[in-house]
Batch of 3 targets.
Target 1
Amino acid sequence: MTNTALITGASRGLGRALARALGAAGWKLVLTARGGADLDRAAAELDATAIPGDVTDPAHVARLAAAAPELDLLVNNASDLGATPLPHLADYPLNAFRRALETNVTAPLALIQATLPALRAAGGSIVNVTSDAATGAYEGWGGYGAGKAALEQLSNVLAAEEPAVRVWWVDPGEMNTRMLADAVGAGEAAQATDPAKVAAALYDLISSRPASGKVSLQ
């Protein structure tokens, strides 16, 4: 029987790289991202189902859950960097802070709630992509880090409450992505790890299905 994965933020970076790894292994893929053109290209490459949209939109969450009535893996990879250039918390625009929390915490929980019946039935897995900004005191990263810290604790509690489902909160480390370039500049981002290398380690985690918990990939 073919396994099915739903991946958010799948049009580029780690999401797209993981989709390639899973697709090569024969997984059926449902992919979503806000960038419709990039998402369509990724889906065409992988013979996947593309559902563009914003994960903070409840109607979009409902469409995603309906597209995967049988689901083995949910990957909450979509993230919002927050205000840029990265401001100190004393100057952080509260609207940008709220938006980051909505994308990085509330939206993953909404999608988890919508897909849990299918994941429970399959004995499936959830990957919540987090960051070392969840625990490190990095200047300018307070908005993003606060959201990822909340996502880690949400994952921790979810793992205790849902013993039939594997829950991993995964710190992928610094990767050469557009998000990192937006934060630190393209030159510094180019020195970071290729997302394909991180995706290979994440695929190994998904395949080996260890107990729920926090995982660092670099």
Note: The chain has eight helices and seven strands.
Target 2
Amino acid sequence: MNSLLFLILGFVLLYFGGELLVRGSVNLATKFKISRLVAGMTIVSFATSSPELFVSLEAIFSESSDIVFGNIIGSNIANIALVLGCTSLFFNINISEKTLKLDFPFLFFATISVGYILYFLGTISFFIGLILLIILSAYLYYIVSNSRKEIRDEVKNEVIDENTSYLNSFLCLISGIFLLKYGADFLVSSAIDIALLLNIEERVIAVTIVAIGTSIPELATSIVAALKKEVDLAVGNIVGSNIFNLLAVLGTTALFKEIEIMNPTILSFDYLFMIILTTIFGALIYMFNRGKLDKTKGAFLLLIYFGYIYISLIS
């Protein structure tokens, strides 16, 4: 009974957490004179990727480098196939030209580059981690500075709520992160308790409930953003989160300790699957009804995700 109540509480916290995170991000985007898409690529992505960073840091200090890679790769797969799949299943998503011309190509570049490094070196050293952070910083500087130039005229015509201060916007943002974290914690822990009561194997729990739980902040934020008609925020959240996971989370973790692949399956299966999925995602947004994700594409992405879970189980 307690597990069921915590499960419901988890969903409630996630909804309001996503609501506050979106509201704070939109207000800050307006005040900083940047687009909703860039806000999703920076502010929201950093917020929703913070759990992966904390998990990775804790794992590397516990001598569990495979957890670092598994955490990041699994999250990126879930973000594209599960989160975007679920969101586009209920909302038609229009992908902006900026995402098509710059953001997705950069994500693909980051995915291939990190894979290349891991394939030939099998490790992320302090020096490589520093390079990843420098590349990310240059990219963020470029998109923010360009956005401020492009949005200037648009912002002049917007009606800005003067009663919404920077402090209130930051409080909304921080409160949203707080609620998302505890909402995810409640949801995952209560779901595990319920699954154990139903005698479901722990291994099945790990690759389903726990894996989905790590992407709940992105899912909650993207759905709330879509409900509020902030589609650019929803798309920017996912693309930006995957970029942050590869460059910021791996880069920051490597500054503390070198990350070495211990289980070759992570590279030969999981990372390869992530590259293939990213390529498929690119094909969906470039080739078939360019710049749009609809119910059919959403269902296809979800089918891929469940296929990945099934293959992981039988292997």
Note: Residues 154-160 have pLDDT under 50 and may be disordered.
Target 3
Amino acid sequence: MSATWLLARRNLGGNRVRLLASVGGVALALSLSLALDAIHAGVANQLTTYIDEAGADVWVSQSGVRNLHMVSSWLPDEVVSEVQAVDGVAEVTPILYATDTIAARDERAVAYVIGLPADPAMGRPWRIVEGSDVPSAGEVIVDAAFAERAGVAIGGSVTVLGGTSRVAGLSQGTASLLNSVAFVSSDDFRAMRGGAPLVSYVLARVDPGADPEAVAADVERVVPGVTAQSAAAFSVEERRLVMDMSAEVISIMNVVGFVVGLAVVALTVYVATLARRQEYGALKALGARNRYLYGVVLGQAFLSVAVGFGVGLAFTAGLGLAIAQASLGLELALTASSIARVGVAAAVIAGLAAILPIRQIAGLDPAVVFRKGAAS
């Protein structure tokens, strides 16, 4: 290790109280940005959970409809058999879909309500903790976290789509910060919504070895009035909608977090540099060049940010695990792109924070420093 980095490390760790305060402040500041990014990514992941877990390779919807969130899609019943007849389609499952408020006692939640046929090959709940995974007439499957908050169990009553249904199953992993997923029978869904012979989406599974993108293109070509997408493309469209709706707010909050981080790091480096003015003056008197002193200050800044970033990353990861265990319907998803973005920003912050102390060091007069030291 070079003499520059050794001195920078000694300066940073020379005072344990100052070290803990500076690293802790930097860690909290950078944790803010990491946590905001993680919440954003987690909400986006949760909103596509049903798409990702439904088991379909291709999603077929009304023409022009490319996602689930905040849209409606209606197709005539005959589309189901038309999609089934397309080359490369192995099996299909029609589902009905609406966004609605489900209620039990005093608890209410926004939910994607899915209407399932009697024996669905796809689209059913992917994780059941109790009860049935396919609702029969008069039944509903709700998320276990919602049921716990509402104080209802198997056999309890839930209001959904304007009617009352008996809880037949409790699912897990079907709730997010924004909404949950509830499942009723297709017959009940139609009865509660006027009984029209319509479906919302057709979920298709392709033949082994078939390309979902190619099959989706064939469905659009053969079946009139539909939009067909692979499950991967459908999920991307859903995530893109979430990003478009929240990107501006998240960006503003991230900027605030970065500004706080810059202020904390700048203050830390500035105070640490001023505390060693006499030491730097002595180094200059002994022949140390400004370039060497610049390296010490920059090294100290980068070390403080690096340690703070590591602590902040560990703190955010631990916070994500704690939230997951608490069943709050919130997910913190740390992504490689988020970690890289915050890491690069932290390095930039370190460099900018060192500019002011470097300029002060460049103007140090060793004789003046020594006279002040002797007089003190």
Note: Residues 147 and 153 are 6 Å apart (CA to CA).
